UniProtKB/TrEMBL annotation:
Phylogenetic classification of the source organism: Bacteria, Bacillati, Bacillota, Bacilli, Bacillales
Pfam families recorded: ABC_tran
Residue ranges constituting the ABC transporter domain according to the UniProt record: 17-248
Keyword Protein biosynthesis: no
Gene Ontology MF: a single term: ATP binding
Name by which UniProt lists this protein: Spermidine/putrescine ABC transporter ATP-binding protein
Organism: Paenibacillus terrae
Amino acid sequence: MTEERSCLISDATVPVVELKQVTHVYVTDREASLAVEDIDFAVGTGEFISLVGPSGCGKTTILSMIAGLLRPAAGQVLLQGQPVNGPSPEVGYMLQQDYLFPWRTIMDNALLGLELGNRVDEASRERIRLLLEGMGLGGKEHLHPSQLSGGMRQRVALVRTLATNPGLLLLDEPFSALDYQTKLQLEDLIAETLRERGKTAILVTHDLAEAIAVSDRIIVLGRNPGHIRRTFAIPDAIREVQPFYAREQPGFNELFHEIWGELEASGAKE
């Protein structure tokens, strides 16, 4: 079955997402706090990048601005060359928790995004059924979230995120609540799924090995305020194999320690 075309029109000359000198300030009744300052990077079509850094460096703030949930105090966030002015169906957002509605079946949870856009029909139901089947959830459409394991629930959340066929996926620590074996399985599944579908993705994670295993590039952030310290390109020998096997590739450990050193320097100096 032919998949619906994403709303996000691909143009190889224009980054899928671009941040230009982005700064954000959180303001309360008592104070103003500079969260991130002069964030500047671009992500190309089909690229998978990870944001890593100490707590409080603004990783989730950056995702929220890309998703249109926050507006930067200064600078520009562009999606396919156009300013981001609010949430868009072109962007899928997958969080640490699955946020499935317990009273809805797996199929109805997966269809939620399409339902909100009045795009549910027999063709879309069949497409979601095939997506669920591809995630190892075939025959479970009628079950409720309480009847699934944590890993299965995250697979449903991924299907729900992919259902509207976004061109860009934002992944905010989607594996952190899972046991290690399930986490590794989902890393492989998500990386393979996004690669097959030509999706662009930005992952926020505290797991450095995970970031190296799934990414094309890693952006290391510092804090006080959040800023880019350094960007690492992942060697072809690592990024072209499944995440599970990437950890076994020559150069993986050396790269891990180099990035870890950058993170430790960030924590020691800031």
